[in-house]
Amino acid sequence: MYSLRNPRGFVLTAIIAAALAVPLAHAQDDLGDEVKSTDKHDLVKKRPVKVVQMYPDATRKDPDIQATPGMAKNIMQMHALVDAKNNDEAIALGEKMLADPKANHFDRAAAYQGIGYANFGKHDYAKTAENLQDCLTENALPNNDHYQTMLNLALAQIAGNQADTGLATLNRLAAETKLDKPEYNGIRGRASFAKKDYASAAQALQKSVDASAKPDQGEQQMLFASYFELKQPERAAKVAQDIVHAHPDDKAAILNLAAVYQQAGQPDKAAAQLDDARKRGLLTDAKDYRGLYVLYSNIKGREKDSIAVINEGLQKGILQPNAEVYTALAEDYYFTNQTALAIDAYRKADAASTDGEAALNLAKVYNNQNQAAEARAAAERALQKGVKNPSEARGIIERASGVAKKPGKKK
Asked: Has this prediction a pTM greater than 0.85?
């Protein structure tokens, strides 16, 4: 009897958001999609009697310098343009301020800061880092603005693939302010993740996630990916479970959880996650369905579930009626003793195939059913289309033709 099943060797691929953009910090110290300077440069107007110091223990003293007369309006306008995402206009205004011979260090620092934030809005992290470094070099803004700029510089450097430089800037910030905020662990984790230093990334990101009442999903994803790369499935699963719990309709998070279950040798749990997503309409493309039906097919006794998934995918038009899909369906039918349906599926696979592999499998089924004529025809077709192991097809033809060589007599 000829064997049909060949291990498919399928491994569920985790969808990991590895290329996450690192946003600059808000004045409120969170990581968001926009950038704003501390106090919106209210310091260029009449300042309140008491300013809340964000870095009270900083070694640097606030410089006693303010905007030149007439420049305050430009500074406020530039930052309003940044907030409105009119980045090119903000950059043009900032460059005009820098070209003014009357501009003092404060004016220039504010201009560089605004240009840097506008360049971040354009995703030009290299220019952002250059501009913010120039802002710090002017050394003219109050501590709140100066050190917020330093934090944003670290983030821009990390986003611009300068992870080591960004970490050095962040460490400088912590040292000069004598303040190592919990959020800095998240930034360190992002930098280490960018360097593919997954052990350091996991350590820092875990601290950040643990310290937050509402963890950042991007950090959670990188923490999951770090544990996944480190082959620590139990920890990866815990993070993935937390993400799915918080975002139950996030397909990528569900696929990640399924992947780590499979990595941990728990295919039934992986299949349960994917099947629940299917029932809720979250599996929407052929790759999703293939992941589930192959997973089911490789779990002993779950071939019928694989059949149901394939047929549903075909009926919905998510799976295309191609050789791969029909071959998978035929295998599952055959190993659930539904031979007639297996033959029909192999025929469809053969018709859709450019090689003879499906025809050879069909010949094997016919041969095992003692349907010699059909076996021979399928095997001949397999040879005509081309197969990896033509000797199998020839053997079937010989047996079907009744010309198999008899054993020689012993001498």
From this structure: no
Among residues 157, 110, 109, 150, which one has the least CA distance to residue 129? 157
| HEC profile of 182-246 | CHHHHHHHHHHHHCCCHHHHHHHHHHHHHHCCCCCHHHHHHHHHHHHHCCCHHHHHHHHHHHHHH
DSSP 136-187: HHH--S-HHHHHHHHHHHHHHHHHTT-HHHHHHHHHHHHHHHT---THHHHH
Question: Which whole number is the average pLDDT over 23-49?
Answer: 40
Q: How far is CA 339 from CA 335, 343, 376, in A?
A: 8, 6, 18
Question: pLDDT for 340-364, tens place per residue?
Answer: 999 999 999 999 999 999 999 999 9
In degrees, rounded to 5, the angle at the alpha carbon of residue 216 between the alpha carbons of residues 223 and 275 is 70
Strand-pair partners of 25: 31
Token representation of residue 230: 């480190």
Tokens of 384: 């005509």
Question: What is the residue whose two structure tokens read 């330093």?
Answer: 150
Residue 263 burial (CB count, 10 A): 18
In angstroms, the CA 233 to CA 337 distance is: 36
Q: 403 pLDDT exceeds 80?
A: no
Token reading at 362: 């069909």
Nearest-10 crossing angle of helices 357-368, 323-334: 20
Judging by beta carbons within 10 Å of its beta carbon (0-12, 13-18, 19+), is residue 48 exposed, middle or buried? Answer: exposed
How far is it, in rounded angstroms, from Cα 22 to Cα 35?
A: 12
Check: CB of residue 97 under 8 Å from CB of residue 65.
no
Provide the Cα torsion 129, 132, 138, 143; round to 10°. -130
- Do residues 51 and 142 make contact, with C-beta atoms less than 8 angstroms apart? yes
Q: Using alpha carbons, list the distances in angstroms from residue 156 to 26, 56, 152, 298.
A: 13, 25, 6, 46
pLDDT at position 50 is 63
Q: Is-contact 34 138, C-beta < 8 A?
A: no
Query: Residue 323: CA atoms inside 13 Å, Cβ hemisphere, count?
Result: 13
pLDDT 10s digits, 204-239: 999 999 999 889 889 999 999 999 999 998 999 999
Q: Could you tell me the two tokens for 59?
A: 């070694």
